[in-house]
Amino acid sequence: MSIKVLRLDRWIDPCFDQILGAEPGVDLSVMKLSDPDDVNWTKLAEADIYHVSAAKDEVPQKWQVTPELIARCPRLKVVSSTGAGYDTVDVEACTRAGILVVNQAGGNANSVAQHTFSLLLALANRIVESDHLLKTASGLLREDLMGRELTGKVLGIVGIGHIGARVAQLACAFGMQVLACDPYVDEATVCARGAAPAPMEELLAGSDIVSLHCPRNKETLGMFGGKAFQSMKRGALFISTARGGIHDETALYTALESGHLGGAGLDVWMVEPPPHDHPLLTLPNVVSTYHTAGVTHEARRNIATISARQILDICAGRTPPRMINPEVHPAIPAQFQSAASI
């Protein structure tokens, strides 16, 4: 009996299907969101592994991994997120049910770090403002759009995992000082990744730019609100390529509109995409993008490759490298031994 892998019909690099399709003992099928619900529930009930989009606004609630979905999927052993995030997966519910959750952390680190600096440079050099005014205004002096150098500035990184570490490397290349706060990384590792460890209060007070690179979970949801923004330097810049909901959008608007913060670069939103009349989109010192930091040709291919190979690792009884709830894993290999041998 083959191991049944089910993925949603969201865009994915073709190498994912090619890698899994070439493996005997693995039966890959695609769940089309346009199909009738009863057809999709049948597919889910037969799936051993569910590869689900990490973007919450791309997946209807009924197909996100909730206790309700888990109750209807008796064979489900593994949930694989399509990205570093796992907003569509209730990890605690999976753990209670003995379901392993894996993600693709690091697969898009280069792309997200590059995008982070794209936002930062656009703000520091006022590129979006300049582009707009060059096309619409007259009589401006170049000094009206004077920017700032990054050399010597302090960058505060919140979360120094795969992406945060790469951002720290780029910051050092620009001659910046780097602080980092991450409760899951020891001080020696923070230093090895190119940053000086700092508690959150010190990081906020001492940074010219604060950049978020932490996951969205119960600990980080709403972490950056009015108090955090007021704790930042006056004129500081705020960047997020992490997840919507970690920062309070209303509080950020207030901090920007009042002049306390100098600008924001945002790739993530509470609702994606945000409505056109979103208050933050009305501010000239906000550079906004479409949650595309990790959406490059290279990153998408890399993530599809490592996710397919990680699934094959699991099927073969090997320990996957990117587990969210590793305490569940010891029971997983035996469950697959009765299904197939790879």
From TrEMBL:
A single Pfam family it belongs to is 2-Hacid_dh
Q: From which source organism is this entry?
A: Pollutimonas bauzanensis
> Which CDD domains does UniProt cross-reference here?
PGDH_4
Entry superkingdom: Bacteria
- Taking every annotated instance into account, which residue ranges of this chain make up the domain D-isomer specific 2-hydroxyacid dehydrogenase NAD-binding? 117-293
> What GO molecular functions are on record for this protein?
NAD binding; oxidoreductase activity, acting on the CH-OH group of donors, NAD or NADP as acceptor
**Family indicated by similarity:** Belongs to the D-isomer specific 2-hydroxyacid dehydrogenase family.
Query: Sorted alphabetically, which keywords does the UniProt record give?
Result: NAD, Oxidoreductase
Q: What protein am I looking at? A: D-3-phosphoglycerate dehydrogenase
Q: Does the keyword NAD apply?
A: yes
- Domain (D-isomer specific 2-hydroxyacid dehydrogenase catalytic) ranges: 26-325
